[in-house]
Amino acid sequence: MLDDDLTRRAAEATRALGLDRLATRLRVEWNPRLRTSAGRAWPGQDRIELNPAIARFGEDEVRRTLLHELAHLIARHRAGRRRIAPHGVEWRRACTELGIPGEAARHRLPLEPVRQRRRFAYHCPACGAVVRRARRLRTEAACLRCCRAHAGGRFDRRFRLIESTA
Q: What are the residue ranges spanned by the domains of the chain?
């Protein structure tokens, strides 16, 4: 759900760095599906998602997380088509410019993960490895270990995972 106030604040911080084009396209949303991450940046969509649970840690935490994710968008925007590390030099530079120098790559908030029961089991016909999943596979998948060992890391139908009955 879109947050107009946070979107405005992020756009103002972006404009202050001379990135008007990014500022006009930027959106900040609350995503209740986030569980253990405080936030997430989507550079291709110029969008930031924040975990609603961070609000209980105070306005400072919301602000810091917003700036952390905004730094990702700024770093990717400046890099253009060039590949960059998610928490690399460009991101650290953007953090410093946004007023959060020395920002950590990961948060230390006590956000509890939701434990899902892995009801579906699949096995590799070659090595017998068992892969358990919370959701049923919708597309073909193969044993990663066997594909790496025998197919140069590429998908190979010989190692296609088969749903187990038990």
A: 4-97, 120-163
Measured CA to CA in angstroms, residue 117 lies from 128, 135, 136, 137 at distances of 22, 9, 12, 15
pTM as predicted: 0.73
Maximal C-alpha separation, the chain: 59
Reported residue count of the chain is 166
pLDDT digits (tens, 9 = 90+) for 43-98: 999 999 999 999 999 999 999 999 999 999 999 999 999 999 999 999 999 999 99
- Classify domain 4-97 at the CATH class level: alpha beta
Burial of 69 (0-12, 13-18, 19+ CB in 10 A): buried
